[in-house]
Amino acid sequence: MKKFKRVMGAAMASMMAATLMAGCASGSSSTSSSTAASSSDATASTESGSSSASGSTFKIGTIGPLTGSAAAYGQAVANAAQIAVDEINKNGGMNGYQVELKNEDDELDSQKSVNAYNTLKDWGMQFLDGSTTSACSIAVSEYTKQDNMFQLTPSGSAADCTKYDNVFRVCFSDPAQGTAAAKYISEHKLATKIGIIYDSSDVYSSGIYQNFVTEAGNDGLTIVSQEAFTADNKTDFSVQLQKAKDGGADLVFLPIYYTEASLILQQANQMGYKPTFFGCDGLDGILTVDNFDKSLAEGTMLLTPFAADAKDDLTQNFVKSYKDKYNDTPNQFAADSYDAIYAIKAAVEKENITPDMSVSDICDKMEKGMTEITLDGLTSQDMTWEASGEPNKEPKAVVIKDGAYVSAE
Asked: Does residue 408 have a pLDDT over 90?
């Protein structure tokens, strides 16, 4: 997508505030390489929210839903960012400077995400790891653009998340997820007939759905039902499920968030309908839903760049650190955020950025640096970025088995 030029000024700030969305939810050659070094006993950290003398430390903020229905996303982003910062500080800092981290809760609400951004800006933030969800990230980007603040969303996947020069992402875009999901289903011959249930009121869900349908047609997949719901009607999915069942769908594609997906799986079970359920990164978190019978998710698949059971040293060390610190298994959102912090570090060091520089000067250098680094991260080896803000990486698939995510390969 062609980037828009920056527009500054109070008049635009006022206009953007009035039009905020409600709710949230390869080009250049590589010249620098950074590997996200993991340490299971990393403890040397400047605590989140602590103050520092101006110019003596780097300040990174995160924004996401730390409470509410999507808390599994925001908490994972904040937790993994803290692990990365702890490791970086223990190993000499970022370009020789220590790093401070501060997390803010947006409750999956666009206006609250903007409020969180302003709080972090007042704190002295120089880099934003956020916002976590698409609509919130889009809303905040209107303000990071005006301030020329570098923004790297770990998991904002809507196409418009990266429409400005100062915004990059770690995750796949919605179009990429929809296309990759259809290709994966086709190449692995997972189904002959497919039903789709999506949220037409959500930019994340709609974006994946549209590209999935297009690619499914190219790959010869038969879609027997395409049923929508909205944010105002997302508790009863009996009609959508019945349409898929009547059409003979042996796979139901769910490009939606995990809370609604858990209800769909419960209601499908009550109907005696047992297709394969297949989703994207929004399903990552379904095993955390309160009072959800995890056995209902057995065999559910999702496309994701991270599998916690991977055997490489980086993943194993990260998972151990995460479990030791938070008594939980990290999800893809955590992996994206961990990689985001290390990408920031790599670009800072590539461009020799120091914390005494202005936010705008830092951003200008980061825009260049991000296109010149290569990151061996949790979510991909040899990950690079285009000037458009898009990452170059390969998708993976996981399947839920015995109440845990395992690699589908």
From this structure: no
Closest CA to 124 of 104, 146, 102, 143: 102
Q: Which amino acid is at 246?
A: D
Report the chain's mean pLDDT, rounded to a whole number: 88
* Angle ∠(109,288,87) on CA atoms, nearest 5: 80
Please, are residues 291 and 266 in contact by the beta-carbon 8 Å criterion?
Answer: no
Please report whether residue 2 resides in a domain: no
Single out the residue in 304, 320, 346 at which a domain terminates: 304
Tens of pLDDT, residue by residue over 159-214, are 999 999 999 999 989 888 999 999 999 999 999 899 999 999 998 899 999 999 99
Q: How far apart are CA 341 and CA 93, in angstroms?
A: 12
CA 70 to chain centre: 12
Please identify, among 250, 278, 304, the residue that sits at the C-terminal boundary of a domain. 304
The whole-number pLDDT of residue 8 equals: 37
Do 273 and 375 fall into the same domain? no
Instruction: Look up residue 65 and give its amino acid.
Output: P
Query: What does the angle CA 122 – CA 126 – CA 130 come to, to the nearest 5 degrees?
Result: 90
CB 49 within 8 A of CB 62: no
Q: What is the pLDDT of residue 30?
A: 36
pTM reported for the whole predicted model:
0.75
Q: What is the mean pLDDT of residues 383-391?
A: 97
| Inside any domain, residue 193 | yes
**Cα distance between residue 297 and residue 222, in whole Å:** 24
The helix (H) or strand (E) run that includes residue 33 is strand 32-35
In eight-state DSSP terms, residue 373 is E
Give the structural domain span for 46.
Answer: 10-172+311-394
* Strand extents, DSSP E, 154-279: 167-169, 193-199, 222-229, 251-254, 276-279
Tell me which residue of 131, 111, 155 sits closest to 22, measured CA to CA.
111
Same domain, 282 and 317: no
Considering the domain architecture, whether residues 268 and 341 belong to the same structural domain is answered as no
DSSP string across 278-297: EE-GGGTTGGGSTT--GGGG
Whether 253 and 379 share a structural domain: no
